[in-house]
């Protein structure tokens, strides 16, 4: 079916993003995969092959999207889901059953942490959380019942870069799967499958979609694993709807060029912020001051559009800084063309106490920036005015 990009074909990532998943060209056929806005499909008898039903994830719009993402990741298969959380939850529920155990990084998106910490235990699946930067942490947490290692690269919101390579080699030795959420990097900056990760998760709501107008997720891996994630999805039901799949396919076509601008604006804004007296700390993997600068340089094709900073004066100043921004929008989420800022103490990490947040590097005054694709000079002017105004207000 796929005429333009087949697995193993030596095409660059931008070309794959545009062409993979496309159907055979025939006179009069649409160039763009249509939205198959149909819940069900004609099927008369077993000779008609696989039953198609949109909840099964095999609606043709979803299938084309799955092929595109698999090709982008350099993996065999990919399954679109109704959200990033659905991709993570379906994956973990397909890998572990009651009595099983997971080992996860303690640096995780708040709801992923809650899924592991309080929801999966209700299904008899326990998790040990580790500090992934502590020597031997993954190995020490292993038990005979351990089924998977789970982490994010880069981490939300502290932007630490865990090197998947040693975790993958330990996992191979002991027969454990590796599940990594690569949302913050996107497949344009980091192809986790090529590093041996078994299941790559994305909240496609973010960079893959790219326009803050859809909620979606995707899980990619080998045929066998993704088939079993699909079986779990059939039971729990979080398939992506055809219109969302079409929007996501549309977003992915421009992923490479958007990421080029996110990367350029990210390093530009992070470097400028580091020179500002109102900012006590900047975290960006492309800055030499970042603790994972070297490993980030080895792993990432670009350092991305996520920048975190801590403002002098703490939470009060962070509130007034956010209120003073005019161009950047104050909202949770990330990865869209517009610059968004948020304070994780109000959003992803509001379930933790100030002390717990501080312990994982998120003190009050911490502001996360998803740098968009605007002109960098305009962003800098907006940030400069808001920084100066909030510092002046704090002195009053
Ligand atoms: N993973 C990361 C790193 C995220 O930041 C988020 C959401 O912010 C998710 C997963 C969940 O994605 P979704 O909102 O699409 O369910």
Note down, in words, how this protein is organized.
- The model has no long low-confidence stretch (mean pLDDT 95).
- The protein has 14 helices and twelve strands.
- It starts with 12 loop residues before the first helix and ends with a helix.
- The chain has 396 residues and is of the alpha/beta class.
- The strands form two sheets. Strands 1-7-6-5-4-2-3 form a seven-stranded mixed sheet, sandwiched between helices. The protein has a five-stranded mixed sheet with strand order 8-9-12-11-10.
- Bound molecules: pyridoxal-5'-phosphate (PLP).
The N- to C-terminal Cα distance equals 67 Å
* Helical content class: 25-40%
Q: How would you sum up the major sheet? A: 7 strands, mixed
Could you say which structural class the secondary elements and strand pairing correspond to? Answer: alpha/beta
Q: What hetero molecules are bound to the protein chains? A: pyridoxal-5'-phosphate
Q: Indicate the mean pLDDT.
A: 95
List the helices and strands and how they pair.
Blueprint: H1 13-19, H2 60-73, E1 77-81, H3 84-95, E2 101-105, H4 110-119, E3 126-130, H5 137-141, E4 146-152, H6 164-174, E5 177-181, H7 186-189, E6 199-203, E7 217-221, H8 223-236, H9 242-253, H10 255-274, E8 279-283, H11 293-299, E9 306-311, H12 314-324, E10 329-330, E11 340-342, H13 354-359, E12 366-370, H14 376-395
Parallel strand pairs: 2-3, 2-4, 4-5, 5-6, 10-11
Antiparallel strand pairs: 1-7, 6-7, 8-9, 9-12, 11-12
Helix pairs in contact: 1-2, 2-9, 3-8, 12-14
Bound molecules: pyridoxal-5'-phosphate.
């Amino acid at each position: 079916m796929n005429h333009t990009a087949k697995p193993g074909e030596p095409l660059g990532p931008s070309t794959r993003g545009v062409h993979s998943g496309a159907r055979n060209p025939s006179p009069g056929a649409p160039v763009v995969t249509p939205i198959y806005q149909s819940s069900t499909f004609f099927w008369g008898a077993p000779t008609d092959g696989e039953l198609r039903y949109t909840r099964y994830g095999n609606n043709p719009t979803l299938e084309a999207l799955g092929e595109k993402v698999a090709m982008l990741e350099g993996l065999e298969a990919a399954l679109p889901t109704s959200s990033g959380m659905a991709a993570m939850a379906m994956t973990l529920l397909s890998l572990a059953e009651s009595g099983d155990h997971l080992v996860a990084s303690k640096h995780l998106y708040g709801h992923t942490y809650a899924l592991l910490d309080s929801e999966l235990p209700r299904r008899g699946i326990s998790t040990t959380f580790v500090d992934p930067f502590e020597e031997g942490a993954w190995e020490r947490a292993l038990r005979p019942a351990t089924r998977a290692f789970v982490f994010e690269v880069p981490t939300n919101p502290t932007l630490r870069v865990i090197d998947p390579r040693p975790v993958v080699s330990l996992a191979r030795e002991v027969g454990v799967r590796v599940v990594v959420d690569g949302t913050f990097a996107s497949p344009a900056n980091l192809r986790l499958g090529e590093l041996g990760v078994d299941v790559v998760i994305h909240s496609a709501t973010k960079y893959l979609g790219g326009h803050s107008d859809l909620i979606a997720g995707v899980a990619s891996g080998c045929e066998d694993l993704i088939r079993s994630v699909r079986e779990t999805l059939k039971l729990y039901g979080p398939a992506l709807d055809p219109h969302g799949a079409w929007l996501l396919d549309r977003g992915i076509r421009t992923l490479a060029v958007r990421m080029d601008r996110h990367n350029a604006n990210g390093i530009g804004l992070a470097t400028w912020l580091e020179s500002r007296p109102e900012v006590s700390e900047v975290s960006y993997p492309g800055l030499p001051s970042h603790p994972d600068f070297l490993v980030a340089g080895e792993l990432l094709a670009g350092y991305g559009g996520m920048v975190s900073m801590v403002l002098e004066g703490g939470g009060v100043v962070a509130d007034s800084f956010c209120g003073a921004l005019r161009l950047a929008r104050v909202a949770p989420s990330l990865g869209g063309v517009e610059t968004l800022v948020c304070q994780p103490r109000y959003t992803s990490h509001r379930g933790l106490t100030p002390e717990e947040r501080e312990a994982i590097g998120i003190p009050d005054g911490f502001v996360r920036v998803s740098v968009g694709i605007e002109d960098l000079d305009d962003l800098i002017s907006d940030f400069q005015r808001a920084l100066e105004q909030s510092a002046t207000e704090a002195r009053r």
